[in-house]
């Protein structure tokens, strides 16, 4: 069983990532920017 300190660190990290993602979606052209960045990363990995 996870102790309280470990669980709190996991939750803070999760909510930080989720908040960043939601903030990105909220921005102007957010979904297009995310999709474009994912395409760039995929192209870089294929090289």
Describe this structure in words.
- This protein is mainly α and about 45 residues long.
- It is built from two helices and no strands.
- The chain has helices spanning about 5-25, 30-45.
- The longest helix has 23 residues, at about 5-25.
- The termini are far apart.
H and E order: HH
Pick out the low-confidence regions: none
Q: Average the pLDDT over all residues and give the rounded result.
A: 90
Strand content: under 5%
Sheet having the most strands: none
Helix content: over 70%
Total beta strand runs: 0
Large-scale geometry: elongated
Total number of helices: 2
Rg: 16 Å
Beginning-to-end CA distance, first to last residue: 43 Å
What's the SSE blueprint?
Elements: H1 4-26, H2 30-46
Short account of what is shown:
This protein has two helices and no strands. The chain is mostly helical and 47 residues long.
What attributes characterize this protein structure?
85% helix, elongated, mainly alpha, 47 residues
